[in-house]
Prior knowledge:
Oligomer: single chain
Distance between the termini: 30 Å
Mean pLDDT: 82
Strand content: under 5%
Amino acid sequence: xxxxxxxxxxxxxxxxxxxxxxxxxxxxxxxxxxxxxxxxxxxxxxxxxxxxxxxxxxxxxxxxxxxxxxxxxxxxxxxxxxxxxxxxxxxxxxxxxxxxxxxxxxxxxxxxxxxxxxxxxxxxxxxxxxxxxxxxxxxxxxxxxxxxxxxxxxxxxxxxxxxxxxxxxxxxxxxxxxxxxxxxxxxxxxxxxxxxxxxxxxxxxxxxxxxxxxxxxxxxxxxxxxxxxxxxxxxxx
Length: 237
């Protein structure tokens, strides 16, 4: 076990739990009363996804402080500033809504802002990882399994919305429709778009790097196996 996060963007790790925290609030409120935040239809799987993702992304965030980060020594303060701005915006909308709720259009209420903020974070969070892969000319250390699962989830999420619209006889993309979940739609599009970029990096641009690493790991495994066998042989003498 390498115990290294050298190929895992620190900025991605920072942004991910923040985004899923906001998305959890968005989904929970949408389940209680979708009219308050104009969230659109929230499915049960949306809630479980948000909670599950928040828990695991928080765990990933702790790992960047525990394991070797390679050349990623510092934290990008632009990302910190971005998160501070997001937090300020959400709190400003919450304060205004608490003082004068009648003056707030629910299209721009606190809960809707949580959703929009999550969409913004999702769009931004992938960029540092794309850049890190490009800078290292390698995807080693960046989990392709996670990318494939993310791509599958985004595709199914988009398909769920399309099928739901067809079943109800409604146009698919209609922001004026109270049942249309614009945030879920944006998250699906962003996930699919960036996951395709990651797959292109992994399978086309930097294929040699991870292929060579796989061969090296196989060799090391065989060497360790021989050493283990020799040790067992010596112990039995």
